[in-house]
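1st attempt posting a full record on here, be nice pls
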Amino acid sequence: MLPSGFDLKKSAREEMIHEGFDPDWSPEALAQASALNGRSGPHADEGVRDLRSLLWSSIDNDASRDLDQIEFAERTPSGIRILVGIADVDADLPNGSPIDQHAGAQTTTVYTAACTFSMLPERLSTDLTSLNENADRLAVVIEMIIDDGGSITSSNIYRALVQNKAQLTYGRVGPWLEGTAAIPPEVSRSAELAPQLKLQDEAARALRNQRHRLGALDFDRVEAHAVIVNGEVKDIETTRSNRASDLIEDFMIAANQVMAQTFTHWGVSSIRRIVKSPERWPRIVELAARKGAALPDQPDSAALAAFLEEQKQKDSAHYADLSLAVVKLMGPGQYVLSRPGDAPQGHFGLAAHDYTHSTAPNRRFADLVVQRLIKSALSGHTCAYADDELSAIAQNCTAREDAARKVERTMSKRAAAVAYYDRRGDTFNAIVTGVTPKDVFVRVTHPPIEGRLVRGEQGVDVGDQILVALVSTDPQRGYIDFAR
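the predicted structure (as tokens):
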């Protein structure tokens, strides 16, 4: 039986505070949110296009309520025209206001098994600035022409008034696009929506193939989610990416590249998202050698991409384990200031020289800042932030993102510790995910839960596949201990 008095929601709140987050809104922020209740709707300024007649749709997680993006596609003589509409959060959130100050301190929405700690009040993130179905909303639109080879031949950015005609989910659209399920009812209710989504899928696949030709990495992502019923953790479920989630990822990557390249073209300072060359490249080379492949001595994303694709085709059953090992060895990304004339630092995993985060302003403060920068440039107004402000924001966003990962990882462990409290002694296949001078960490593959290796840890390194037994779990502390 579980230790008495353990409360997962209370634990999540305590962990947030421990990592430096403030889960409570100030009276001033609450007053600002309340003042928005009487707003009649979006007001289009001069220069804002009315694109509400287009067949916009969104695809997101099944439980998502803060919708940041909608998409539209049409075939043209030059290629497939893609429009990505991003929620204009800035329209309802003045720079420096109480809510903005809170968002700037937190910088990100934190998702835990027990609850979600939103960067913005729900009145904004799930209503006024969420691109909800059949609601008129202001958006920043990124327009791209994709040719048959997957190259972006032209692009444009502008503001628009939009309306989401169909709120769709990965879980229902993905299997249909893959040909393993019937068309979802929410897609079939419009004769134009199914071919529209097929066209989006065609453009997305072209974009993805082109990125891979340039050396972008393709990982098999497996995510674990706690199944909570009436406040109790019942099990741990896993989800994988599918054709629908890939579609949205491909569009968002392209949109973020266009946004960064636009800043460069206009000579405007901005925040970039970078992933440096892996410091532990020699270990990646060693893992490849175990598979009979030879990687260059120096980091090379194209060579790594080719190796990963070969392994995906050759040994799909263990590809998720290899993906996880490489991801851990690459290390996390970070936000940096990019000024006109600065040499691009690039994103190793995407094989991209210019990349920023701009497509989730309801959930990430960096994206909201980028939105303000592009809107300032579009209107010809003075830049919303000075370079030293952008540098400080970038550093804080990186630090808070790291802290958010710690909260989410700890709460995932606590939820797993609850779910597997009575399974001590069971054995699992695992992969080593971290090695420090003091500890070795492993991740069980089915279900994908992480813990510490307390016995038999000598001589192992990241990427090693081993058999472990569950020794103990401590839900209160989030400890899951395994023995080799």
